[in-house]
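Q: Predict the assembly, please.
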Amino acid sequence: MKTVEEIKTAIETAVSGAQLEIVPNGSPSAEHSLLVDAAHAFAAAKFLRDDAELKLDFLSNVTGVDWLDKETTEKVKVTRPVEKEVNGVKTMVDETVEETKKTVTPGYLEAVYHLYSMAKKHGPVILRMRTGNRSDKVELPSLTPIWRAAEFQEREVFDLFGIIFTGHPDLRRILMWDGFKDYPMRRDYVDPDDYEYEPTAHDDVLKRAQAHLAATTTEAAQ
Amino acid sequence: MSESLLEAWNRPPTIEVDGEGELLEVAMGPHHPSTHGVFRMDVVLDGERVIKLKPVFGYLHRNHEQIGQTVGYLQMMPYTDRLDYFCSLTNNWAYALAVEKLVGQAVPERAEYIRVILAELTRIQNHASTIGFLTQEMGASGTPLMYAFREREKILDLFESLTGSRMMCNYMRFGGCRVDMTEAHLNAARKIVTGLPRFIDEFENLLTSNEILMARSQGMGVLKPDLAVNAGITGPMLRASGVNYDIRKVDHYGIYDRFSFRVPLGEHGDIYDRYMVRVLEMRESLKILEQALKDIPAGPFIDPKAKIRGFKPKPGEAYGRIEAPKGELGFYLISDGGTSPYRFRIRPPSFINLTVLEDMCIGQNVADVVVVFGSVDIVLGEVDR
Amino acid sequence: MLGEGLLKGLGETARNFAGSFVSKERLTTVQYPEEREPLPEASRAFPFLVYDGADWEAGLRCVACQICEKECPPKCIYIEKSKDKKPDYVGKPQIYPAKFDIDISVCMSCQICVEVCPFEAIKMDNQFELATDDRFGGLLYDRKELARSNEYYHKIHPTEAAEVDARLAEEKAKAEEKAKAVAAAAAAKAAPAMAAKPAEGAQPQ
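A: Predicted assembly structure:
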């Protein structure tokens, strides 16, 4: 099978304007994945399925990943002119100061597709798509019209992560019930306070169970 | 795949309604006895004919994926038993395989043999009971199911004496297995393997040429191969449609390249083919078992240097998949360097095989929906996770 | 011929029916609860705490290290450490569990607590008939309800218990040897001093 780099060039030549990036995988499995921009993802996926050499006709796994906003602090040495009194005269002197710089990398939701070929018996090729952010720009093109295997799995990703797949024929909640509001697989999801009885509660569960008990007893007293 | 199929999919599947009487919407389940647990099908009926079917999931949703992201790597192992509770050992293997891929852990030879033996025994007992359930749904109230369970019992007895539990085995570990399979266990397995061909023969005598089974299953619930591939169907369902894709042959995970066995394929993709493929797969599993039980070498059953608990894999990801009795079972793990995975994903075969349930049921009688559903072979613990 | 397959199948059921009178292979049901199949040795249900000797409280092997509490997947174990110490089986003073609760309704019989315990203090019982009419309290076992003697452990898992006993005896012997060696070293250290003293005292004479 072609390597990830070769597939990247193949897609770039076939789909004009597609922006692809190889996402390295640090684990010993070394299955690197291809990050494709949302605008050209559909065309790229169609190419991967129909290309005579690749023929990735089998979409095995679709999943979402939630990447939170990342705040990185790094110490940077900054050289800047500082006013100083040298021999009674005020002059500007360059001085190197160490500063902590905070950078916030905005989080995003990611959809991961594992592709194999049943005809050629090779794989996997891992395709990724990323949303703009985690709140309002969560739309990605649905690949269900290309591989129907994505139908239920994209619904599941929508249900648990909140990625809206445009072009999906039947995008409803699948595992949670229809009236459910939140997305339970997001990293910042707070599960509801329903600790009625927990005889062997630990740490934060214990704290919440106690808070729940306090809340319910005051409610009952009122 | 042809462009026309795409178009057909993008429209809702339609079928001519004869116009007499009115359409009836029926909720089959979640407490319908044929739904293997808690599963609902919203069926729109025109008389007896199904014109629309929507599966409704989630009654057994426990969010295993969230659990997997909060507990450590070892702690997730017993939870995997509870996915497809008929085949806990193959679930264990798939998960162990994914973690081994993530940390780069090798498995000693004896452990690989033990895994193959247990996985194939699991496959046999799963297929036997699936056929039992399928015939139960056709109205054979109990006889084939009881025969299947009688044989399954022997296999489960072996599992219990080896792993301590009949169904929730929690047996495999990263880099091997928890305890060794002693000579006594191996002899018990050999005894089962010598007894099983007679059982399969009896089972086939009972069912294969049975006119009622043929009438209820031949030409029913047909799944075309191009749709099966496109919809990601795996396992006996896919092979019954004639697509030769067995992960044991494709990936050669474990030591499957050492055994000679064939991949049974169907021709028509109907329920009868699914039944036949399962029977033949049991026979092929017996072949693998005979070879494995003959060749099993001495040696360690677990890599003594393997880290079992409290380890922190390097940031990265791995997707490990095996040919579970129901289809491709995969685990997708992303590590961020912590003691528990950043992302833990299960690729459940039963869930994805249900994608084509509507396509197979459209136009059938409502009584056949139950049979088509039974031929998919699902376990709700895995569908809803 | 139509019906041939049916007749063949009926022949099979007839064979099984007749066979069930003569062959144990074909009649596999037992009349539970009057009749029971013997449980295999490895069979596991829920954990218990092992104690040595006659007094369960004094003999508990558990030293409240809380490893099992941390490793338990569904977090069904709750341990409170004691403030004081008491001697363990090798005679080393150890903390003991002031409170050790297992919620059996949460426990999923996975055996991970047994695997991680470095003190052979927690083992798997094979009692599975634990039905109770008290939904909460009845299934929350405290350390008294969990305590089982080593003899009981030998009864349900003979091979495993024998291995454990051998290992513990070896450890104990090692610890005793070490203690002896330490004592001997201390004695040896004291001895020259003792020997030197009278010698010093002897000089002026």
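Chain B is about 50% helix and 10% strand. Chain B touches chain A through 48 residues (CB under 8 Å).
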